[in-house]
Every structure is written in structure tokens, then in C-alpha cells.
Design brief:
Blueprint lengths: L4 H11 L3 H10 L4 H19 L6 E8 L5 E9 L2 H4 L2 H17 L11 H17 L4 H19 L5 E2 L2 E5 H12 L4 E9 L2
């Protein structure tokens, strides 16, 4: 099947994927732009996951200050090369993550960063609330597992629904950018300041 050059150009603009990858995706999907974009995205995410264990020692610090000047964020976003650190998509990702942190106030970067003290305190609070509701002890423990998993997703940056597109998490957003740029990208640290 001959690939329409306009569709090829459009798909490249939509996905930032290479020309041969776009051509192959269009051929496999019979020229359907939407299906081809989804196919490239799926393949890119699989490749991105493989790249996530590579060292990311370059990067940049991004900032966000709320319009009223009463809240601000600094976030260190790492990548593998200074070339990617200067890339427009990397810059956009850094700004969007800083804005997300300002809006969603995460406490940790990833689930494994959450300390046992924090989780135990939340377990006590949830257990007391469930007892207050009159739930039996054997049921409480099962319910607690789900509540703790939900709590962890609320306080961990990578597990939070992304503020600009709640259908995806911040972690998914980073994986998409890894797939596009071809390098590992990690959030190294962040801090959020707010006037009290």
C-alpha cells in the first residue's frame, strides 16, 4: 500500500515519531491516522519502559510561581543528555510537572518513597473511621488495603492523575515523553512552597 505523504507528515507532527515508524504504522493500519497514532504510542510506551533503567544525570530545574505570588514550585527533571535537556518537549514536560505539583501538592515522587510511618498513621486513621462505621474487624483489613493504595496514589507524584488530562497519570505523561525523545527521564526531587 502506498502511503499518502500528507498523512505521513500529519502523523509525524502528531507523534514526533520517525518517518519509517510512521510509514510502517500507516501501512499496518490501512492509512487510518488515529489507529496509526495509537499503534505508535503503544510501541513507544513499551520501548520507554525498557529505557527507564538507564542513568539520567543531565537535566534542568524548572520553576512555577502561582499568579498571586503565594505559592511556588522547584522541580529537578533529569534526562540522559544535555541535547534532550534543551529539547522543546522536555522543557514543556518540566513546566507541566512543576504546574501539576503546584496544583496537586504531592508529598512523595513514587510509591516506594512513602515511609512506613506515614502509611501506619493513615492506616490508624482509616481503621478508626471504619470501626466508627461499624464494620467488622475481618472486613476492615480487606477494605484497608484498598484505602491505603488509593491514599498512596493521592500523595505520590507519579501516581497522581495529571491535572491537564486526568485520564493519564504523571508517570504516564513521563513515559510518553520518554517514548518521543528516546531517553530516560526522571523526577529527581521537588519542593513546593506556599504562604501560610
Amino acid at each position: 500500500m502506498a502511503v499518502d505523504s500528507d498523512k505521513l507528515k500529519t502523523l509525524r507532527e502528531m507523534t514526533s515519531a520517525g518517518m519509517m515508524d510512521c510509514k510502517k504504522a500507516l501501512e499496518e493500519t490501512g492509512g487510518d491516522l488515529e489507529k496509526a497514532a495509537n499503534l505508535l504510542r503503544e510501541r513507544g510506551i513499551v520501548k520507554a519502559v525498557k529505557k527507564m533503567d538507564r542513568e539520567a544525570s543531565e537535566g534542568q530545574i524548572f520553576s512555577y510561581v502561582h499568579h498571586n505570588g503565594k505559592m511556588g514550585v522547584l522541580v529537578q527533571l533529569n534526562c540522559e543528555t544535555d541535547f534532550v535537556a534543551r529539547n522543546e518537549k522536555f522543557q514543556e514536560l518540566g513546566k507541566n510537572i512543576a504546574m501539576h505539583i503546584a496544583a496537586s501538592d504531592p508529598q512523595f515522587i513514587r510509591g516506594e518513597d512513602v515511609t512506613e510511618d506515614v502509611l501506619n498513621k493513615e492506616r490508624e486513621i482509616q481503621r478508626a473511621a471504619l470501626k466508627e462505621e461499624g464494620k467488622p474487624d475481618n472486613v476492615i483489613e480487606k477494605i484497608l488495603e484498598g484505602k491505603i493504595a488509593k491514599y498512596r496514589s493521592e500523595i505520590c507524584l507519579l501516581e497522581q492523575p495529571y491535572v491537564k488530562d486526568p485520564k493519564m497519570t504523571v508517570g504516564d505523561l513521563i513515559k510518553e515523553t520518554i517514548a518521543t525523545l528516546g531517553e530516560n527521564i526522571t523526577v529527581a526531587r521537588f519542593i513546593r512552597f506556599a504562604m501560610k
